[in-house]
Amino acid sequence: MSSSSFSQIRSQALSLEKQTESLLSKYSQYQQSSSQSLESTEDESHTKQQINDILGKRTTIINKLNRISESSINESSLSTSKLQQISRHREILQDHWRAFNRITSQLTDERNRNNLLFSVQSDISYHKQQHQRRPGQAGSTEINDDPNAYILEESQRADNVNSIADRLLQGAMNTRDELINQRQFLQNAQVRIMSSLQGVPGINVLISKINTRRKRDTLILASVIAICIVLLFFV
């Protein structure tokens, strides 16, 4: 593939990156309404699917850029800057995947908490109504007077609460794993930067010259200050 093909495919990657940022911004706004909604809206589900599809397309595009780089190595037609561009596109894609998963996890956790609170409030309201109806209505406490039925209901509620707690715990574990992955990513980025600096011809010599000149300038300045102080004593 030619350099023009690389530019065309990269322009698609840039366009999709902008679309992803816009959709992620829109998707994050649903966190404000998640406290009032127990289920995701149709618009939210559509936005989530759009982001997922675009991220998949960007993965395919980056794979195409990688194939171009592999086919152009022997021809020496792919510059170092283009290789860096491919690496940058990959890093941005990983950042967007992390942001997307983080927002999705937060929305899920918030709705799980709301569902738990709604379930508890409903149970409290139900028992209050049954307690108020008990003195004046015969037969209204038939369910409450059955110990087995009451135990079964409480067992089902306990199972529901345990299920929600398990999902919340799983979300926390996913968040922890994501933080560990981010730390590993930063460490890998630092290693790549150091490797790139070491691979640039003459970079070590340049840094050494800069340090030598700085020491020389410091020594000259210190000498001038010392001479001025000595002269002040003799004047």
Automatic annotation (TrEMBL):
Coiled coil: none
Locations listed in the record: Golgi apparatus membrane
Keyword field contains Transmembrane: yes
Record-level GO cellular component terms: cis-Golgi network; Golgi medial cisterna; Golgi membrane; SNARE complex
Single annotated GO MF: SNAP receptor activity
InterPro entries according to UniProt: Golgi_SNAP_su1 (IPR023601)
Membrane topology classification: Single-pass type IV membrane protein
Source domain of life: Eukaryota
Example GO BP: endoplasmic reticulum to Golgi vesicle-mediated transport
Membrane-spanning intervals of the chain: 218-234
Record keywords: ER-Golgi transport, Golgi apparatus, Membrane, Protein transport, Transmembrane, Transmembrane helix, Transport
Region annotation (Disordered) ranges: 126-145
Function: Involved in transport from the ER to the Golgi apparatus as well as in intra-Golgi transport. It belongs to a super-family of proteins called t-SNAREs or soluble NSF (N-ethylmaleimide-sensitive factor) attachment protein receptor.
Subunit structure: Component of several multiprotein Golgi SNARE complexes.
Assigned protein family: Belongs to the GOSR1 family.
Name of the protein described by the UniProt record: Golgi SNAP receptor complex member 1
